[in-house]
Amino acid sequence: MKYKLLDAQRQFLEIPHNYTLDIAVYQGGYGSGKTFAGALLGILLAIKYPGIRGLVGAQTYTLVRDTTLKTYFEHLDNIGFKEGIDYKWNSSEQKLVFHNGSEILFRHFDEPNKLKSLNLGFVEIEEMSDIPYDTFKMLLARMRQRIHKKWGKFTYRIFGHTNPELQQGWIYTTFFINPPPNYRIICAPTTQNIYLPKGFCEELKQLYDEKYYNTFVLGQTGNYNDNLVVKDFTQDNIKDIPYRQDFDIHISCDFNVDPMAWVLAHKTDDKVFYFDELVLENTTTSKTCDEFYRRYPNHKGKIIVNGDASGDNRSCTSEYTNYVIIKKKLLSFGYDAEIKIKAFNPPIKNRIAAFNAKVKNAAGDIGLYISPKCEKLLYNIYNLRYIEGTSKIDIPSYTQIKQSKELKFLSHPFDAASYLVDFYWPIVL
Q: Is the pTM above the cut of 0.90?
């Protein structure tokens, strides 16, 4: 049985480098041959490397069963008997077992901790954009099956296939923005699949609006500015910002136990420069002060504390407010410190308007810069958005955060940064 592969499928299967780990994503529109190529690659690896153990999965087992596994059986039905490929399906363990000792497990990723005992030679991920980044990182750590001498030259492989993300998620930041040389993304428009029925793409063009067609047929990355809270932020707003020992430091605080989010900035009369952030999990105000001192023990300039006005309220667990705790701590370290906060927080839309005006105003002037060190703040800039059709910020639910730990860092770093801007350059709407 011979297949005539599409150019994108061939690029996906072949490895163009000499690294010991290859990580590839096949991003394409509907009917672009993504799952076809992934299942074919899994079978080829099982045949070529006797005794290899592979894992095929998706966020839900329904997707694995109805899409990926179905495609594996279609390939094996096409080529198995003709090429003498002997295999068995073990339904109780949900795995394919080949006559040469290779096996391919089929699993869901909804409980990734259950996969931590596996040592694998390859992993295939269906609808890769659906899985959390933490799951992807966990799977990277599973690439450690012992290499058999009879395999010869061998490369561990993680390969996935997906439609383009609708927002700037981890696949975009990992594979499009300065990816390592062994990370590959292959983009495949549906229109390049010559095996589709005649008129298939033209019919989709009539059915979908332009944005949907560009994403799910042409396979283009989305317009990630749609519904974003922060508008017009570009690479021009990102720069290496040196810490100045003799300059004033503005610490702007959002008080939350997990995570606590503080941003550190220098400022002039009309510009603000975020040079660092303190985003700590399961912590306290006092411990966050300790972390600041650890990083900047010899600061000579003044420290001005800004932030959430509600932090000036006493809690049931302490006789002191957060700001009293901060000032006491900073003074004990020998800093010259003062608190500057508003009597109450303005409406969030005012803070957002003030922040966006500093990102770039109507005259095109930039008044806000962020260091690449501020990873969580930048994550908010690129991903914090409104609920579709509303002016309400889309805050991740507990269930969503449980599935993807990274989501818990949404909103808090942005809140901390916007409190500072609103204090010095407020906009009244």
A: no
